[in-house]
Amino acid sequence: MFDWLNNIDTHLFLSLNGMHSPFFDAFFTLFTSMETWFPLYILFLIIIFKKYRQQGVWILLFFILTIVLSDQLSGLIKDTVQRFRPSQEPLLAGKVNVPSGQGGLYGFVSGHAANSFALTFLLGFLSRNRKLFSILFFWSIVICYSRIYVGVHYPLDVICGGTLGALIGWGMYKLLIYFDWRFQQKSIKKAGVWKQTEIFPIEIALLFIVVTLLIAAKIIVKHYA
Fold it and tell me: Please, which pLDDT band fits residue 1 given cuts at 50, 70 and 90?
C-alpha cells in the first residue's frame, strides 16, 4: 500500500519537477523564499492593528502562536517520519531539478505548506471575507507548487503539510474567538467582516510582489545567459 502510494507520489513529483526552464527556476527560487513575503506579513499587521486597535495585540499573539505551532509540529513530524526529500533521495540522484539548493534531509511534511495554509485559514476566518480567503488560498497553492518545482518536496509532503496547517489555522481561530467571547465581550467579532477597502492593499501588495519577482527573474536569466 505504502509502496504503491510512494511510487505514484514519486512519478507525479518527477513530472511536475521536470517541467522547468531557466526563467521559472529563478522565479520560483524567489517565490518560495519566506523572506520574499515579509512586506506582505507587515501589511497584514498594519491592517489588523488599524481595524482592531488594542485587540490587535492579542490577534498578533495568536498569529505568532499559530506559526510557531505549525512550524514546530511540521518539524517534529519530519524528524519522526524521516522521509528523505526528493533532492536528498539517493535513488533520484541526477533526476531532480534543484535551483535553490537541496534543503534539509527530511521533507515530510512541508513546513512552508503548513505555515502558509495556517496563516491563510486563520486570517481567512478572522476576516470573514471570501475574496480574501480565495486570494490567500491560491497564494498557498502556488507556495506548495513552488516547493515541488525547486525539488525539495514531494506532492504528498505539501498536501499533508497544507492539511496540517489548515487544521492548525482553523483551530487557532476557534481558540481566538473563544478568548474573544470569554474575556473581551466579542470585541473582535463585533469588528465585522473585512471590507473591500481593507483587503485592497493586500491585493495590490500581492500583485506588486509577483510582478517584481517576474522582473527580477528576467534580469537574473539575462545576466547569467
Answer: low
